[in-house]
Design brief:
- The chain is of the alpha+beta class.
- The chain folds into 4 domains: 6-97, Orthogonal Bundle (Arc Repressor Mutant, subunit A); 123-257, TolB, N-terminal domain (Rossmann fold, 3-Layer(aba) Sandwich), CATH 3.40.50.10070; 263-343, Serine Threonine Protein Phosphatase 5, Tetratricopeptide repeat; 373-516, Tetratricopeptide repeat domain (Serine Threonine Protein Phosphatase 5, Tetratricopeptide repeat), CATH 1.25.40.
- The protein is 55% helix and 11% strand.
- The protein has helices spanning 32-43, 51-58, 66-80, 137-157, 165-168, 178-185, 233-257, 265-276, 281-297, 303-317, 324-341, 346-360, 363-376, 381-393, 397-410, 417-430, 434-447, 452-464, 468-481, 487-493, 499-511, and strands spanning 6-8, 11-14, 19-21, 27-29, 48-49, 87-90, 94-97, 123-126, 161-162, 189-198, 201-210, 216-225.
- Strands 9-8-10-11-12 form a 5-stranded mixed sheet, sandwiched between helices.
- The longest helix has 25 residues, at 233-257.
- The protein is globular, with a radius of gyration of 25 Å.
């Protein structure tokens, strides 16, 4: 805060006048209620503010629905333009304005703990890294950059909710135990670590602990070359985020399942995804029911809708849908719902782009959507993954290979790793690298042998490479899982833009022994 105003990204906000002033002299005057909402959020910069608190602060003693608050939030985001992401919606918790607190040197002794049984998405705080004594300026600079990068990477994943780095940076060196420190910043989990020099390397040690007992749920050490330490923190931060997320999900799901009677929307979504990833018909149908329950339980939560879109996508790919066109419409409806609730949900936007290419052959629109998604989340593995098939099917196979390889590197333990490997197989097939396509397809089979889309591509790649006996074994499994599989139908559905590539794919499937 400067004087009587607040700095919000590129804007300054004066609560008394309700005016936002931006670069180049731009001015936006907010409506009075929207200005009061923004003022209250700015006073609590970097902290979660419940909807009920905002309503009481702006409309004291007056009964209003949440629609008024929602409209004010929409007005503020529209006014902030490119900085709209600083005003974040936290499902089932409220809103957070991601700026420094008015007095960053002073934090309240304790913030309310996250509501236990009723909480939705868990809250994680990333603490500043501990440094060795002696004032190593290079390490201190790297630690500060990495703190922001990890928080940004986690925020881009849309889960967990991550506390602003501005709210934890001034707690460097705190000796408080984990439970007290977690309560102090309002977190369910605390990530912390240290940096120290070891000859030509820097050792980065990280751990994540749950708040109630301080039990460590994840620990990992990274050895980084001193040369170029400041060169690429974003990819390291993304690697850290993707390593943390599955452990945190596992911990949350174990806790939730111990109290089966009280699963929240987030935990229902996790459980539904766990059943979905098996790709077994009965458990897959059960997963869809759980995801729909999660979406109904919290109508303002975008993540279950994105998960349902993924569910529909897999259902189409597995040939389990009696009406693929209707399934595609349902997929798109879920994606649009996710984007209405969270306009910066890059994965939902990327899945919509993928759908445009695979199901509608609208390659130009698909590429536009995929480019926008990657601009939003350039280091997100799943967003990068969805771009791969479109690149492969439109003749940009080398780019597709690089994108899929990077996605696997960023998320090597993803529960849908078989899909990553399959998409890399498609990319190699598109560039005519038959053996590489076959090997990545076989890897995907080892990760999940029931993914029928991968079985078809792997059989074609094996036949193209002259490995006919292996190809026939794969076709046998494919037909066993999908008795209606026919090459003629499959060729019309495969999304290669070039007709010659589609015809070649059909010939390779026939050579593999597939039913014509």
């Amino acid at each position: 805060m400067r004087g009587s105003g607040y700095a919000i990204g590129e804007w300054s906000f004066e609560p008394r006048s309700g005016v936002l002033r931006g670069p180049g002299g731009a001015e936006v005057e907010l409506r009075p209620k929207a200005a009061q909402v923004l003022s209250h959020l700015a006073e609590r910069g970097g902290q979660v503010v419940a909807r009920e608190e905002l309503i009481e602060a702006v409309w004291p003693g007056v009964y209003v629905t949440e629609n008024g608050l929602t409209q004010c939030v929409a007005d503020i985001r529209r006014a902030l333009g490119p900085d709209e992401a600083l005003l974040r919606t936290l499902p089932r918790r409220g809103y957070l304005l991601d700026i420094a607190p008015p007095d960053a040197a002073v934090l309240p002794a304790e913030l309310p703990a996250a509501p236990g049984a009723q909480r939705g998405t868990p809250v994680l705080a990333m603490m500043p890294l501990r440094l060795p004594p002696g004032g190593d300026r290079a390490l201190a600079e790297f630690a500060d950059i990495l703190l922001d990068a990890v928080v940004g990477a986690l925020a881009g994943l849309r889960e967990p909710i991550v506390i602003s780095a501005n709210s934890t940076r001034n707690l460097a060196g705190s000796a408080e135990p984990v439970p007290a420190l977690a309560r102090r910043v309002g977190a369910d989990y605390l990530a912390s670590g240290s940096l120290r020099r070891l000859g030509p390397h820097v050792r980065l040690s990280l751990e994540v602990a749950e708040a109630s007992q301080g039990a460590v749920i994840w620990h990992r050490a990274f050895d980084l070359a001193v040369d170029g330490l400041l060169g690429a923190p974003d990819e390291l931060a993304t690697t850290i985020a993707y390593a943390v997320l599955p452990r945190l999900r596992d911990a949350e799901l174990r806790t939730a399942l111990r109290r089966q009677h009280d699963l929240g929307a987030y935990h229902l979504m996790l459980e539904g995804q766990r059943w979905m990833y098996r790709l077994e018909r009965a458990s897959f149908d059960r997963a869809g029911d759980m995801l729909r329950q999660a979406a109904a339980l919290d109508p303002g939560f975008a993540a279950p809708h994105a998960a349902l879109a993924n569910w529909h996508s897999l259902r189409i790919g597995q040939r389990w849908s009696d009406d693929p066109a209707a399934e595609a419409r349902a997929l798109e409806a879920e994606v649009r719902c996710a984007l209405e609730l969270d306009g910066n949900h890059a994965r939902a936007l990327a899945l919509l782009g993928h759908n445009c290419a695979i199901l509608h052959r609208d390659y130009a629109r698909a590429q536009d959507l995929l480019d926008r998604a990657q601009d939003m989340a350039p280091n997100d593995a799943e967003t990068s993954l969805w771009t791969t098939p479109t690149l492969a099917f439109t003749g940009r196979a080398e780019e597709a290979v690089r994108g899929a390889e990077r996605a696997i590197r960023l998320s090597p333990e993803d529960p849908l790793l078989f899909r990553y490997q399959h998409f890399l197989s498609i990319a190699h097939y598109a560039r005519g690298a038959w053996d590489e396509a076959a090997e990545w397809g076989l890897r995907a089979m080892r990760s999940n042998g029931d993914y029928t889309s991968n079985l078809a591509m792997t059989a074609a790649a094996l036949a193209a490479a002259g490995r006919t006996e292996e190809a026939r074994l794969v076709v046998s499994r494919l037909v066993g899982l999908s008795p209606s599989f026919r090459v003629g139908v499959t060729v019309t559905r495969v999304a290669f833009r070039d007709e010659g590539m589609r015809a070649q794919y059909g010939r390779h499937l026939i050579a593999a022994g597939s039913p014509p």
